[in-house]
UniProtKB/TrEMBL annotation:
The family this protein is said to belong to: Belongs to the AAA ATPase family.
UniProt region (Disordered), positions on chain: 456-480
Stored Pfam families: AAA
Keywords, ordered alphabetically: ATP-binding, Coiled coil, Nucleotide-binding
Name of protein: AAA+ ATPase domain-containing protein
Length: 480
């Protein structure tokens, strides 16, 4: 037998096996699940096409809204699930195929749901495993499957699967679902923070309530608050006009100053003044997700990305001649956002000296740096009034101001709380402390044993005392 005869024999044997497999396959009893799908799609299982799109865990609620919006215009949806061992780590098309061939016993079952957050106080149920029969934009029948994360099998994120006889029909439906998902994004206009969430089914993003602060509640030097608000909110109000004149929208704000002077409080004021703006707050270990935060901000613009205590990552520069990788990741995220994006990066720091060299070496990331200093006497009096001492006579108020030089807003907030507690010990009826209660609280906080407390509340640290020199008595003799 020559080579050509051998090749012909091999092809004939292969065809024989394929034909036999098809005959055996077609003779298998069709499961109820496979029959339902093939009847709706009018197509054999082996000819089906599946188009899949995956998303991050925190986008599950938005995906659910996108699918719901897609189904809303195509009749009443009838979701059903799948029961059977091994379904969690198998794709839907594989489940249908195995069900058809009798490899696994899969049946129509209940839909799997989970609860996830859509706001600080709102949740919705999302499908973590379910199928629904509907139609593509071109009218072709399709099957939509939604899947949630399967942590046991190291499958993260959520995804949508569109199964159809035509790839074009499946792709068109998948694109329309994603378009509707972006339109109904639950994160738009919210305040978000990356980290571990307290909400079930959402382990990466937490929704925070939007603060409501008036300008009289932010005690800063004259003109500082107006400058900050004009830079952050004012540019957004004139976004279209600026773009029409060829000006960029992306901006960076650095708030620097000692701890406790009101940097975070100022940021909270900005959040409240911009109710339609998405805010992503990054702090602590969440800073490692700054690239995801920047991408989210660009998609949901107008947006603000708040990076608190950025000096903590800048401080890592001392361990490497090249600098902090995390700091450079932040800079890269700020660069990659695009000049036309209506996104503000707001950085806060207690140590501007650690950042100045890095920011100066890569100019354009921050275009406004504002110092938030320790309050002067006028501002200290304003803070005392704000936190509950406004009823005091002016001479008493002046005495408190004089004795609290160098103290910050955090110090005054704690001072008034202690004064209230002192008044409650005497009489639970009064709703505000008197000068005597404030004096007792202040004496306690200024006492030597609370030096660390004052430091933690932002008070200046005392200069170290000089160490006395110890000699053997010969120093004076040698100098003569």
């Amino acid at each position: 037998m020559d080579l050509q005869d051998a090749q012909a024999l091999a092809r004939a044997i292969q065809k024989l096996f394929n034909d036999a497999h098809k005959v055996i396959d077609d003779s298998q009893p069709v499961s109820e699940l496979a029959a339902r799908v093939t009847e709706h799609l009018s197509c054999a299982l082996r000819d089906l096409v599946c188009v899949t799109q995956s998303f991050q865990n925190w986008e599950h609620a938005s995906l659910q809204r996108g699918v719901d919006a897609y189904l809303e215009t195509r009749g009443e949806p009838a979701w059903y699930g799948v029961s059977g061992q091994g379904r969690s780590h198998s794709d839907t098309i594989d489940i249908l195929t195995m069900s058809r061939r009798g490899f696994e016993h899969f049946e129509i079952g209940a839909v799997d749901y989970a609860t996830t957050a859509t706001g600080p106080d709102q949740t919705i149920d999302v499908v973590t495993f379910g199928l629904v029969e509907t139609f593509a934009p071109d009218g072709a029948p399709i099957l939509i499957g939604m899947r949630g994360p399967a942590e046991m099998f190291r499958r993260e994120g959520c995804r949508v699967e569109v199964i159809a006889a035509s790839r074009a029909s499946a792709t068109a439906a998948r694109e329309e679902i994603e378009r509707l998902m972006r339109r109904h994004d639950v994160m738009r206009g919210q305040i978000l923070t990356f980290g571990v969430s307290e909400h079930r089914g959402n382990s990466l993003v937490t929704f925070l309530p939007r603060p409501a602060l008036g300008p009289d509640e932010v005690i800063l030097p004259e003109g500082v608050l107006e400058t900050v608000e004009r830079h952050v909110a004012g540019i957004g109000r004139h976004a279209r006009a600026l773009l029409a004149r060829g000006r960029h929208l992306k901006r960076g704000l650095l708030l620097h100053g000692p701890p406790g002077t009101g940097k975070t409080h100022t940021v909270r004021y900005l959040m409240g003044r911009m109710p339609g703006v998405t805010v992503v707050v990054m702090a602590g270990t969440a800073l490692r997700a700054v690239s995801d935060a920047a991408a989210l901000a660009r998609r949901l613009q107008p947006a603000i990305v708040v990076v608190e205590d950025v000096d903590l990552i800048a401080h890592e520069r001392r361990f490497s001649e090249e600098g902090s990788p995390l700091l450079f990741t932040l800079f890269d995220a700020m660069d990659g956002i695009g000049a036309d994006a209506d996104v503000t990066f707001v950085l806060t720091t207690n140590r501007a000296d650690l950042l100045e060299e890095a920011l100066a070496g890569r100019p354009g990331r921050v275009d406004l740096a504002v110092e938030v200093p320790r309050p002067d006497p006028v501002r200290r009096a304003a803070l005392l009034r704000l936190y509950g001492a406004g009823h005091l006579a002016e001479p008493d108020l002046e005495r408190l101001v004089t004795r609290t030089e160098g103290m910050t807003a955090s110090f005054f907030k704690e001072l008034l709380r202690r004064a209230v507690l002192e008044s409650l010990r005497e009489d639970p009826a009064p709703d505000r402390p008197g000068m005597a209660h404030l004096t007792v609280a202040l004496e306690e906080m200024l006492h030597g044993h609370e030096a660390l407390t004052r430091s933690l509340l932002g008070a200046p640290r005392p200069a170290p005392r000089p160490v006395p020199r110890v000699t053997d008595g010969t120093e004076g003799l040698l100098s003569e």
